[in-house]
């Protein structure tokens, strides 16, 4: 089983990035998927969840109306579009499957 995140980097406040999470080794299309983040010196924060079919999404209040989760089950890939980013969005972003699989994460830094 592998979950590999990509697409992070350095972005200015107000900017956008899209994270990807490539899944392999399990039936991706059967599982809810989540994004979780950890800011420097802080604990884990749940960001978003998407159901197995991609038709339902859920967000933390801190990212609602700015972030959008989506998935392509044909490509076994999860996405997180992050718009209007704020410095407090700076964190290591990890994807996770509802079965308990986790990726290692990808860094997103929002700074001018």
Summary, kept brief:
This protein has no helices and 10 strands. The chain is mostly beta strands and 112 residues long.
What is the strand and helix layout of this fold?
Layout: E1 2-6, E2 9-11, E3 17-24, E4 33-38, E5 44-50, E6 57-59, E7 67-72, E8 77-82, E9 91-97, E10 106-110
Oligomer: single chain
Number of helices: 0
What best-fitting shape do the alpha-carbon axes yield? globular
Going across the biggest sheet, name each strand in turn. Answer: 2-10-9-4-5-6
* N- and C-termini, Cα separation: 37 Å
User: For the CA atoms, what is the radius of gyration?
Assistant: 13 Å
Our estimate of the beta-strand percent is over 45%
Uncertain ranges: none
Instruction: Bin the helical content.
Output: under 10%
Q: Which class of secondary structure composition applies to the elements?
A: mainly beta
Helix and strand element order = EEEEEEEEEE
**Largest beta sheet, briefly?**
6 strands, mixed
The count of β-strands is: 10
Mean pLDDT: 97
């Amino acid at each position: 089983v592998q979950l590999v995140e990509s697409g992070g980097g350095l972005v200015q406040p107000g900017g956008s990035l899209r994270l990807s999470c490539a899944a392999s080794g399990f039936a991706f299309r059967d599982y809810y998927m989540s994004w979780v983040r950890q800011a420097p010196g802080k604990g884990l924060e749940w960001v978003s969840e998407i159901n197995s079919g991609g038709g339902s999404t859920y967000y933390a209040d801190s990212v609602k109306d700015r972030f959008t989760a989506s998935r392509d089950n044909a490509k076994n890939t999860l996405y997180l579009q992050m718009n209007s980013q704020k410095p407090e969005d700076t964190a290591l972003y990890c994807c996770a499957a509802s079965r308990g699989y986790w990726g290692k994460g990808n860094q997103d830094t929002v700074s001018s």
